[in-house]
Amino acid sequence: MPGLADQEDRLDAGRSQQLRRPVAVSGGRVGSARSNEAALMKAALESDFAVPVAWSEDASRTTWENAVYTAQTAGTRGRP
Fold first, then answer.
1. Cα–Cα distance measured from residue 44 to residue 24, given in angstroms and rounded to the nearest whole number
2. Angle between helices 37-48 and 4-19 (to 10 degrees)
């Protein structure tokens, strides 16, 4: 049975497909993990749900940093 985060990702992917809005993923490495959270989410969204990811931010370590760094990333790259 998938965890709550997996269920939320699936719901978000479905909403993105319905609304046709750009998707951003955000999250750095946790502990000694090899991959950062943004890379894992991007891979799942694109391969499992066919949802393209417009922006990816992989340096954040907190929710506050997620918001700040994602806004900076989206602002510098413009809207797809």
1. 13
2. 60
The answer to whether 53 and 40 are in contact (CB under 8 A) is no
* CA separation for the pair 5, 71 (Å, rounded): 22
- Rounded CA-CA distance 80/77 in Å is 8
Parse the chain into domains and list their residue ranges: 4-77
- Span 10-32, pLDDT tens digits: 666 666 667 677 889 999 998 89
pLDDT at 4: 45
- Report the predicted TM-score, pTM, of the whole model to 2 decimal places: 0.69
* Ramachandran angles phi, psi of 9, nearest 5°: -60, -40
Which amino acid makes up residue 75? G
Q: Token pair for residue 60?
A: 């954040």
